[in-house]
Amino acid sequence: MNVAKSGYRVFSANSSAACTELAKQITERLGVELGKSVVFQESNRETRVDVKESVRGQTIFIIQTIPRDVNTAIMELLVMAYALKTSCAKNIIGVIPYFPYSKQCKMRKRGSIVSKLLASMLAKAGLTHIITMDLHQKEIQGFFSFPVDNLRASPFLIQYIQEEIPDYRNAIIVAKSPAAAKRAQSYAERLRLGLAVIHGEAQCSESDMADGRHSPPCVRNTTGHTGLELPSGKQQAPFPGIELPMMMAKEKPPITVVGDVGGRIAIIVDDIIDDVGDFVAAAEILKERGAYKIYIMATHGLLSADAPRLIEESAIDEVVVTNTVPHEVQKLQCPKIKTVDVSMILAEAIRRIHNGESMAYLFRNITVDD
Prior knowledge:
With 370 residues, the chain is of the alpha/beta class. The protein contains nine helices and 18 strands. Strands 14-9-8-15-16-17-18 form a seven-stranded mixed β-sheet. The chain has a five-stranded parallel β-sheet with strand order 1-4-5-6-7, sandwiched between helices.
């Protein structure tokens, strides 16, 4: 394809060579060259972007994967988008497979909805559209003032299960908490497998103390006005004390597994695997209940801190993630980590958006609950 006449260009907003691999895979599938730009950090850690070719009147796709240094990656994306905007690019579309700060999408006591803030920053920088994958909460799409295409990695992970797990028909899909049951149910129905749910896991649920309105008062009895001044100068009797109901403290129930996993292959599914403590604990419980192999399927493999070591020492047999987030270093530390390539669907989304084609093909048989 003649890039100069194609009407669009693809740039990578990563300053790290290890993070540009996904951008190269996408451009190879599209048959175009990666746009010429330089993204680097000054000695004082300021981000600088130099676009080395004209983008006037062009549709630009910025591919940004999120490495461990999340805040630097966000600044790279913002600065590049603004540089392209001031260079008179026609449309600026961000390809952000893993949307950062997506876990901070609900109000907590004296906190903030950071993903809403990030959505506003991206719009201000000049982005006009976003392609992402498996948002932590689909409601995040409502934070944006421009279109958001939330692609799904589940077809690729389901294909991996069917092709790479021997005797997968003897497997059972597991949700490591009730909150993940809906995603697990979708996998179970598509694979025609059973479903199990782990309940009572020691965790900090995102629904716990979601906002300050559920906080119990410090004092049980709250007294109203001490009196009301009447026109005659006399005071009315004080209002009776208002007794508010006490909020019962939460108590974690004993860990139970709802569903029979004995003699089965257990496949835990989730969208993000970062701090693997919950997954390791779930694997131990499933092993005690008789599961003879344990797999973990997740879209975004952040695998922070000492996650590779914990996985290697655990009862988990294999962790399968996609290449939405760079994790080559973690794979070297832990051979149990496997990667599924999703560059195909990202490249197809770019092609369809540029050609003005419907995106419905990429969401075949996907329901609102998926």
